[in-house]
């Protein structure tokens, strides 16, 4: 079990703010957080130090744009010594715009960590596209946003995509839709740190109650989307007196 965690968050803007939210779960592991909550000493003694690096090609002193008009300060560039292979235990990859094709320096950074074999990858939602372009998904069993699985399968045919909230294959952990990143984080904590500490953090954050499998199957999920589209069309007709037909497009995860 880890006694200290060194975590990087790879920022390739624009990204989904909620995709990056699992990093806050790791912040709860620290002595500073647990002591500030006034917990009994036996619980605060479970805490471990955590160092977090926010990594982007733009480098320190810049900000990475997120959804909801938010931004995150960048602490490290792709070439910073503290985030090179062997220096990070975990690399969190929040999802960007699924249409974005990452620059080669980002792909080189990811491949270097993969080749070193010392870093766990936590890929959230459309972060699967970044991981796919870098070859991280090749030969792996992975998941991704339910509405984009067909697109992901066509784009990265060397991966085996399954329909689950999260999936693990070796050092590669992937999550489905946006908040499934929190389901993944809860599972990863129970793998990475002392069970009692993982239990404490998950209880405080109120995560980890949902299973790996979805409660509803693929058919019922598709039917729900069809119902929602039809309802929206009907409301549009009520307002305008004419039917507004939505453009044909694959269902997405809500990314821009």
TrEMBL record:
The domain of life for this entry's organism is: Eukaryota
Q: Where is the signal peptide?
A: 1-20
| Keyword tags | Signal
- Report domain DJ-1/PfpI positions: 65-189
Pfam families listed in its UniProt record: DJ-1_PfpI (PF01965)
The protein depicted here goes by the name DJ-1/PfpI domain-containing protein
**Which organism does this sequence originate in?**
Cladophialophora chaetospira
């Amino acid at each position: 079990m880890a006694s200290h965690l060194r975590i990087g968050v790879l920022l390739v803007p624009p990204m989904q703010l909620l995709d990056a939210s699992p990093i806050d779960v790791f912040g709860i592991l620290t002595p500073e957080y647990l002591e500030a909550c006034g917990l009994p000493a036996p619980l605060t003694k479970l805490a471990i130090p955590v160092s977090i690096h926010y990594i982007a090609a733009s480098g320190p002193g810049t900000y990475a744009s997120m959804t909801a008009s938010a931004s995150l300060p960048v602490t490290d560039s792709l070439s910073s010594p503290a985030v090179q292979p062997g220096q990070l235990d975990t690399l969190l990859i929040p999802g960007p715009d699924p249409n974005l094709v990452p620059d080669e320096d980002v792909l080189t950074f990811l491949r270097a960590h993969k080749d070193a074999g010392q870093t766990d990858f936590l890929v959230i939602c459309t972060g699967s596209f970044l991981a796919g372009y870098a070859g991280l998904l090749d030969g792996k069993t992975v998941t991704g946003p339910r509405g984009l699985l067909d697109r992901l399968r066509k784009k990265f045919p060397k991966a085996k995509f399954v329909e689950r909230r999260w999936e693990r294959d070796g050092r590669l952990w992937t999550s489905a839709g946006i908040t499934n990143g929190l389901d993944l984080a809860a599972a990863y904590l129970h793998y990475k740190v002392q069970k009692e500490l993982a239990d404490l953090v998950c209880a405080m954050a109120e995560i980890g109650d949902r299973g790996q499998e979805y409660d509803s199957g693929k058919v019922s999920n598709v039917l729900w989307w069809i119902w929602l589209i039809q309802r929206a069309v009907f409301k549009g007709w009520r307002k305008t007196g004419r039917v507004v037909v939505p453009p044909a497009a694959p269902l997405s995860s809500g990314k821009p």
